[in-house]
């Protein structure tokens, strides 16, 4: 483990909603992270729908290439996944699908890259089924998932303000501990 170096995590919220609670969870993660950890938000807003014809004719869109390069230069990924119909929301899966193109670049972007999943929902299930749906995706991309902690925020309406800001002290503490565990894992596994 290399101490005293900055650890950079790319934080991807799987929602386009302005008041997204998953984006809010990642904003809170940036706030509770230690000084030597940079949680850098990424947005899926400029990622187009995947279209093989577009890829064949125009290559990888600039927004996708930029995010690929940011992930490749990072120490790990934080993915805050909403759950839609018991699975991964389309915008998030779409982004991952673009980011996995072309296949020869998967190892550079995702290979052995530490990843931690978290999620929030107004429902009771805490995004557990979305987390389960992520497992084969993480596996096929060759990422290194961290399962040492879990942050699946259920019944989130009581824990977030209307603008998606986390306002619950206990969840913030859980988030800080989650982040600390993941950062230790990232540092132990640094390539
Ligand atoms: C949902 N939602 C939802 N929640 C859940 O816990 N399990 C589910 O299967 C679903 N399914 C689902 C389908 C669709 C199409 C939508 C639009 C919503 C509710 C979802 O958790 C809620 O909208 C969250 O607020 C989404 O996260 P963001 O956008 O606030 O980050």
Low-confidence stretches: none
- How many helical stretches? 7
Strand content: 15-25%
Q: Which outline best applies? A: globular
Task: Let me know the largest β-sheet.
Answer: 6 strands, parallel
Number of domains: 1
| Annotation, overall tally of beta strands | 6
Bound molecules: ligand FNR
CATH level 1 class label: Alpha Beta
Distance between the termini: 10 Å
Q: Determine the mean pLDDT.
A: 96
User: Cα-atom Rg, whole angstroms?
Assistant: 16 Å
| Helicity, as a percent range | 40-55%
Provide the CATH superfamily.
Flavodoxin domain
CATH topology: Rossmann fold
How does CATH name the architecture? 3-Layer(aba) Sandwich
SSE string: EHEHHEHHEHEEH
Q: How would you name the oligomeric state of the polypeptide chains in this document?
A: single chain
Layout of helices and strands:
Layout: E1 7-13, H1 21-32, E2 37-41, H2 52-58, H3 62-72, E3 76-80, H4 90-99, H5 106-109, E4 114-120, H6 128-140, E5 144-145, E6 151-153, H7 169-188
Parallel strand pairs: 1-2, 1-3, 3-4, 4-5, 4-6
The structure holds ligand FNR.
Residues 15, 17, 20-22, 82-86, 121-123, 125 line the site of ligand FNR.
Care to describe what's here?
This protein is α/β, with parallel strands linked by helices. The chain has one domain (12-188): Flavodoxin domain (Rossmann fold, 3-Layer(aba) Sandwich), CATH 3.40.50.360. Helices cover 40% and strands 15% of the residues. The chain is built from seven helices and six strands. It has helices at 21-32, 52-58, 62-72, 90-99, 106-109, 128-140, 169-188; strands at residues 7-13, 37-41, 76-80, 114-120, 144-145, 151-153. Helix 1 packs across helix 7. The radius of gyration is 16 Å and the shape is globular. Ligand FNR is lined by residues 15, 17, 20-22, 82-86, 121-123, 125. Ligand FNR binds next to helix 1.
